[in-house]
Design a protein that fits this description.
It contains 4 helices and 4 strands. The chain starts with a helix and ends with a helix. With 82 residues, it is an alpha+beta fold. It has one domain. It binds zinc ion.
């Protein structure tokens, strides 16, 4: 009887741990943190990416060098479309 009770408590706490580690908001935060949107082609860019520009203290990430070059030439044009 005592053993069954301990087993139950163990299973319960284990289940709670699993549930809290699998909750959606945490996953989404990680995703938002590690993936940025390329302002030129709207592609998702995984972090850390090779191509980055800083404009008005804001960082922008690019899928390829071509996108970064386009952005650097005229950042305002692409940021207006957002
Ligand atoms: Zn791109």
């Amino acid at each position: 009887m005592k053993t069954t009770l301990i087993m139950c408590i163990f299973a319960l706490s284990f289940g709670t741990l699993y549930a809290s580690s699998a909750t959606e908001p945490i996953k989404q935060t990680i995703l938002a943190d590690s993936v940025k949107i390329d302002p030129i082609c709207k592609m998702k860019v995984k972090q850390p990416a090779n191509y980055k520009s800083t404009y008005k203290k804001q960082e922008y990430w690019f899928c390829a060098k071509g996108c970064k070059v386009k952005f650097d030439k005229n950042p305002v044009k692409y940021l207006k479309n957002n």
